[in-house]
Amino acid sequence: MHRTKVKVAEDALDANTTIAAANRADFDRHGVSVVNFMSAPGAGKTTLLERVLGEVDARVGVLEGDVQGSADADRLSALHLPVVQLNTDSGFGGECHLDANMVRSALGDLPLEDLDLLVIENVGNLVCPAEFKVGEDARVMVSSVTEGEDKPFKYPLMFRACELVLINKIDLLEHLDFDLDRFLYHLDAVHPGVEHMLLSAKTGEGTEAFRDWLTGVAKTAPAPA
Ligand code: MG
Ligand code: ZN
After folding, report:
1. What are the extents of the domains in the chain?
2. What digits encode the pLDDT tens for the residues 38-53?
3. What CATH number belongs to 2-219?
4. Where would a tag sit more exposed on the chain, N or C end, judged by fewer CB atoms within 10 A?
């Protein structure tokens, strides 16, 4: 019984890898770099994107993943960028993460030929988004200081399966007992040497570095075929 369950999970991940490669080929053909943006619910992903995307030196689009509703996509639409909402409760069983197949289902709604950078805002979740590649070039993990300094230790895969860790809401540090050294110690233990940035999506402090990082990723896109 247990072995069967493991086998099913492995097959599902194999299928995901195959579809992620197909997404990757489509992104390459259109010369689009892709960032998978992950965090727990409420870490500030959408606010951070509102803060920086309008100032990234590239043509940017967003694929907004949520279980239901279009609240975040509506907010980002104010930036006058192409934004497509992907709801996991419409045909995908209300999944708590995006996978390659869900992303693939939305590609036709995105003007890939007009983009240099696609940001995929994943469903807020600290466990499974890390297990599903969607064809991205890079992954960004956002962790806010209100979540506590033990999160890299308790949810190591999310902090390991990424190229950049953003520590958000630093404007609140003076009100919290958050121990930054302790957080960085845990982070280094699960992902030695991973790049990290301290910032506040609310005040804008430190967000220029993230904006420039996104611009850098956009510039790595291959020329359209
Ligand atoms: Mg959001
Ligand atoms: Zn999930």
Report:
1. 2-219
2. 999 999 999 999 999 9
3. 3.40.50.300
4. N
